[in-house]
Amino acid sequence: MRIGILGGTGPQGRGLGRRFAMAGHEVLLGSRDASRAQQVAEELADAGNVSGVANAEAAQAELVVVAVPYEGHADLLTSLADALAGKVVVDCVNPLGFDAHGPYPLDVPDGSAAQEAQRILPGSTVVGAFHNVSARLLDDPSVTHIPGDVLVLGEDRDAIALVIDLVTALPGSRGLYGGRLRLARTVESLTANLIAVNRRYKTHSGISISGLPDVPAASAP
Questions:
Q1: Mind listing the pLDDT tens digit of every residue in the chain (221 residues)?
Q2: Does residue 151 form part of some domain?
Q3: At 15, is the secondary structure helix, strand, or coil?
Q4: How far apart are CA 20 and CA 3, in angstroms?
C-alpha cells in the first residue's frame, strides 16, 4: 500500500514510516518543508521505499496517517480536506500539554483529535490508532519485537479492519478494535500517563489488554 504520513518528520511519523517501509509499504513522509522531509527519508533509506515530500503530496497516497503536533492539526487538515476526501485517514495525534508537573491531556472542543479530524474531513473515513506506541521503539531498527496492543477506533468496519491489518507492520503488536470514535479521547489522554510512567521508570511503555487469548499478536511479513 502507498501510505502518506502528514508530519512524517516528527518522532511518531518517522517511526511509523520506518515500520511501514520495513513491512513492504511505499511511504511518503510529508512535512511543511519538503527538503526536510527528503533529508529524513534519506535517513530511513535502509528501511525500504521511503520518499520525502510536502504534506500536500503525502495527502495523495491511498491511506494517510496524521502525525502532526496538535497545535497544527486543525489548520493542516482544513487545508487538505479536498485531497483527503474519499480516503481512510488514520489520526494518531495526542492533544497534550506539559508544565512543571509533567504531561496532561488538553481539552478538545470536539472531544478528541480524531473527532476533530472527522468534523473537518466529512468526506473522509477517520480512524484513530497508533496513539500509545513508543516512537523510540518504532524508529530503532534493532528492536525486532514491539509488545503491546494498538487500539483502533472508528465507525466503519472495513476501515477498522484495514488499519488493524496495518498493525502487522509492528512486529509483536496486536491491533484491537477499541470502540467508536467518541472513545478516542480516553486513548489519546492515556498517552500522558504513559509518558509519566516512562519518565519515572526510564522505559518505553505501551498498553496491553488482557483476557483476549485468541487474538494473535501481529508479526511483520
A1: 999 999 999 999 999 999 999 999 999 999 999 999 999 999 999 999 999 999 999 999 999 999 999 999 999 999 999 999 999 999 999 999 999 999 999 999 999 999 999 999 999 999 999 999 999 999 999 999 999 999 999 999 999 999 999 999 999 999 999 999 999 999 999 999 999 999 999 999 999 999 987 776 654 33
A2: yes
A3: helix
A4: 8
Q: Is residue 17 part of a domain?
A: yes
Dihedral angle, C-alpha 18, 21, 25, 26, nearest 10 °: 90
H-assigned helices in the chain: 11-22, 34-43, 55-58, 73-79, 81-84, 113-120, 135-138, 157-166, 184-201
Single-letter residue type at 213: P
Q: Can you give the residue range of the structural domain that contains 158?
A: 2-201
Q: Phi-psi category of 9—alpha, beta or left, where left has phi over 0 and alpha has psi -120 to 50?
A: alpha
Q: In what order do the strands lie in the sheet with 50-54?
A: 50-54, 26-31, 2-6, 63-66, 88-91, 125-128, 148-153, 173-179
What is the chain's Cα-based Rg? 16
- Whether the Cβ atoms of residue 215 and residue 176 lie closer than 8 Å to each other: yes
Give the residues across from 127 on adjacent strands.
90
Look up the pTM and report it: 0.95
Count of structural domains, the chain:
1
CATH number at residue 27: 3.40.50.720
